[in-house]
# Entry
Amino acid sequence: MNKKAVLFALLFGLAFSGSLWAQQLVKLQDALLIASKNSPDIKIVQLNLVQTQQLLMATEASYKANFRVNLNPITYSNDRVFYALDNQFYTTKNLKSSGNFNISQRLPWTDGTVSLTNTLFWQQSSIEKYANTTSKFNNNVRLQFDQPLFTYNRMKLELNSLQLSFENSQLSYNIQMLQLERSVTQQFYAVYNQQMRLQITLEEYNNQKTNYEIIKNKVEGGLSRLEELYQAELNLASSKSSWENTKVSLDNAKDNFKILIGMDIFNEVNVLADPVVDSVPVDLDQAIKFALENRMELRQRQISIENAKSSLTQTMAFNEFAGNLSLSVGLLGDNENFGHIFTAPTDNEQIALSLQIPIFDWGERKARIKASQTGIETQQINYDDQRNTIIQTVRQTYRNLQNLLNQITIAGQNVRNAQLTYDINNERYINGDLTGMDLNLFQNQLSSKKLDLINAQINYKLEILNMKIQTLYDWETKTSIVPTEFKKNKLI
# Structure
């Protein structure tokens, strides 16, 4: 069956199924494009991808210098304060205005923090006892460095975890797109299958109508027995019933297809497919090589192993020997005149070393570490199992492709033989040498063989798509379909 014949058949099918201009012809690529925009599953993984990307961007931004200003424009207090020296209460009044400017820089390579802080405030106070009011400016500038000791780099681990999470979201999105392509293609060809079934059942129905008219004329002319007319009526009614049932099945398949790709269910559609199968050469060894190099599920397993190792690092820090070093230098100046704050400044230096020394935890840390190590082993087993499953699936798909090519050849020959058989026996039927029941068997055989050929062609196209998904390589165009971000991030 050539492409012109297929197109003619499709247009013929549209003609009897409704108004030609009321139908929307949908190609497979059109359906995939519509589904990629409307599929709820795709929208969910897209949102998850955006979420992990924004979290990663936020964390990366937090590692850059942070500038912050805190202002307290006015603070006023009027209190009665007890002075023990003369055993009396006095009224104190305070008016204060202050500001704090801070620059902090996290150091991902050491997990430390460097900060520069400048605090400026002005204060006016009076005490009832002294009957005077004093005001003063005060400025404190300080450079500080804090560094955790004897422990893992928490900042680096956090960033690595978010990078892996984002990469995993990218992989999930790409895998979901491939699964959507598989689902849409299957539903697309399910509709096409029903369209061709409708065409075949219509051909059968038209043949039965022709045969009915022939036998009716022969019975009226006394050339055939009356029971032959009854059999022709029965065959005609059966073929009409099959045609009507197929129309219902086609409508149901169209509804399923429209819901899957996100089209309006009330739209009238027909699919336009090319069933002609050209043998696509596939090399098994190369297919396995592509699958092991490109399959994103394997990278996801690697990410699980890396996350398990990160979890072990965190667990090993439980009740660990650790410390913290803090260094600070600064200048403090105060004066009633703002311009003379640092006339006689005071140096401020500070150094502090703190240690955390675990004594005894009844084996809790050891048990937690063992549990985390078991998690790594589990993820490694999952990786090896996934790898073997991929190899097995590629081998099975390859065998199916070879078998389907043979089935298409056999089915094509069967259709030709069934058509010749039907034509010969139809002549015998017209000449009165064959009963209507016998001719109906040959008609059913012809319809069955045509459907077998269509099914074999569709199954081969679906299996080629399956091989494409299994290896992430388009064997028809001989091009890799590995996403760019996966090529950049994968660790092979």
Q: What stands out?
A: The chain has two domains: 3-55+158-309+372-489, 66-107+112-149+323-357. The two ends are 45 Å apart (CA to CA).
